[in-house]
Design brief:
globular, Thiol Ester Dehydrase, Chain A, 6 strands, six-stranded antiparallel beta sheet
């Protein structure tokens, strides 16, 4: 099954990724590239994007990359480093790259950049592969 079919299936019921306004730019086995625009309701009390928004955005890229072979995969561990602030109106892009594709686990790195091609955050995630299909 091709990656686009799997991710389209996920997005049909992924209310949070849809609320974020995520657009899928490209998909290949084990990788994904997504984009979204930062809205005012995503800001924290300090005038920068809430860290949970950036984390969730990276987590979606991670999920699309590790599930797109149609092997249901769930997060085991993940972490993020915030490098630059993200502001209202910024257009951010996340690229998830597969580092390891094992039988039961996978390791991914997600780089988030802004519209100026500045890296604003780096996310790393490890998934567990259940062996069940995402799309039956």
């Amino acid at each position: 099954m091709n990656p686009q079919t799997v991710v389209s299936h996920i997005l049909q019921t992924d209310a949070f990724s849809n609320w974020l306004g995520i657009k899928v730019i490209s998909l290949e086995e084990g990788s994904s590239k997504i984009e979204m625009t930062i809205r005012p309701e995503m800001m924290n009390g300090l005038g920068i994007v809430h860290g949970g928004i950036a984390f969730a955005f990276a987590d979606s890229a991670f999920a699309f990359a590790c599930n797109n072979r149609n092997n249901l995969s769930v997060a085991l561990d993940n972490a993020i480093n915030y490098l630059k602030p993200i502001h209202t109106g910024d257009v951010i892009t996340a690229v998830a790259t597969e580092i390891h594709n094992g039988k039961s686990t996978g390791l991914y790195q997600v780089s988030i950049t802004n519209q100026h091609n500045q890296v604003v955050a780096i996310f790393k995630g490890t998934c567990f592969r259940t062996g069940k299909p995402v799309v039956k």
